[in-house]
Amino acid sequence: MSLSDIKVAIVEDNGMARINLRNHLMEMGFTEVGCFSNGRELKAHVRLRRVDLLLMDYHLGQNKNGVEVVQELQEKGLLKSSTSIIFITSDRLPMIVGQIVDVHPDALVIKPYTIRSIEKNISVCLNFHHYLQPVFKLMDDNEFELALDKLVYMLERNSRPRLHSQMVKLQARLLIKVKRFKEAASVYNDVLRSSDKIIWARWGLIQSLYLDGQIAQSEEMLLELTNTQLTSDKAREWLARICIGNNQYAQAEDHMNEIREGEMSVSAARLKAYIFQAQERNNEAIQLLEKKRESNRGIRERYDELSLDLARCYLQEAEGKSANERDKTLQVAKFLIGSAGRKNLDQKLIIKKDFLYAAVAVMGGNLDKASELLHREGMDDLADVDVIQMTDAITAWKGIGNDMKASEILALCKERVAELDDGNETTVANMLVIKREESIGERRPEALSFNKTGLEYYIKHEYKKATQHFYQAYLLFPREVAFSLNLLQSLVEAEQAKYKNVNTKQFLLELSRRQMTPSNQKRLEEITKKVEKKPSIFN
Questions:
Q1: How many of the other CB atoms lie within 10 Å of CB of 237?
Q2: What is the pLDDT of residues 380-394, one digit of tens each?
Q3: DSSP state for residue 161 in the 8-state scheme
Q4: Cβ contacts of residue 331 below 8 Å, gap of 6+?
């Protein structure tokens, strides 16, 4: 393919830098070069035209950064695997470089750059994509197994030794994509035998082990990475997500506390806020998101998203109040929803806000208003709706009594969560989906049944059998304090320091950070005294 046939997009908020880069590309022989100052402009462009080469700046002024833009476009299928992506940034901060590496660009260019370095990076990227065009074409069509077979065949031929490392990296990513995690781990291990400094291979190995169920080994590797500045924050986020998967929110919080608040990405701040909420500490979630929102006031898209996240926090706060005490909290939620994109007439944002307005109306007892909002034009089209927005829709439809619609959206939510690539986003979305599943009532009856059987064994002093059933109730409904206390008390009475993935001492610490009623707090204190009397067992 000649350079004149390659369609290029430049995303750079600095007008002079954008023009200079475009002129250099034209001098190289490119003829179709689109220039954009932010992600919204690029998004509108790629909806209508393909892009073969994307030159993406990291900082985009008062808009989402380049990584956030690429992630969004990849999730929506608007950026294809066959698109060469080159990131450009003046930042050398580990946090920034780590975010860029996460989206697997073909190259990273640090400003100030020379024309020679840009030309060299573009040439290498285009040659790689041209050589592997049959593989990338299959990936564009979501034929990942066939793409992997084709790539392995090309690797065996080894006709381009200089591209071998990049091809192996792509092979490992494809193995993860098709859920062949052991083989992916083997590929990453082979790479690390030649050099244990190759960071993408270390992250890949950790991911492969984790997805293969080898959690302890992946945790051990992540703890090693917390000792290095370049990898510490990302490793802490990952460790926090593992803890959340085990319902160990206190430990997850401890990991997130090791990340400086000012250096925390928006997705990490959102993750930490939901960790607070899972422990019924909604005020701390609100404080964290308010700080993050204020620090992003100049970045309109992020400010809008954080405004909606805050509105969800106030909705959760309203849930815990009686109907006649909710008005003030709901007014704050409505104000926050209104402040998001106040002058933005984008239809997708309007729909996103309407789902939240409908949830507010439900909470306020105005079901007619909620129904009117839900039946507006476009509210039934969920093709381009993100998972968190869909959980708002579940709340609203459930609130007006349409359980069938709520269950349909919940099923779609679960499918979408499985397709997400960003770890923090996946964890937050999964937490919200579980919460909505609880609200619909699909988990609670089963959990109550296990809890009831556990109580029957507990009364008979058959603590080990009681523990088995309390554990199942806890897994189904971890936010129910009574189930957690029953499990803890049964473990203590059975003198079990550990049951499956629950460590009794750590579980006690976990529950000590939860907000509880006075009676539950008293019960926890009594259990604590019993644990303290037996240090040889519960160490």
A1: 25
A2: 888 778 889 999 999
A3: G
A4: none
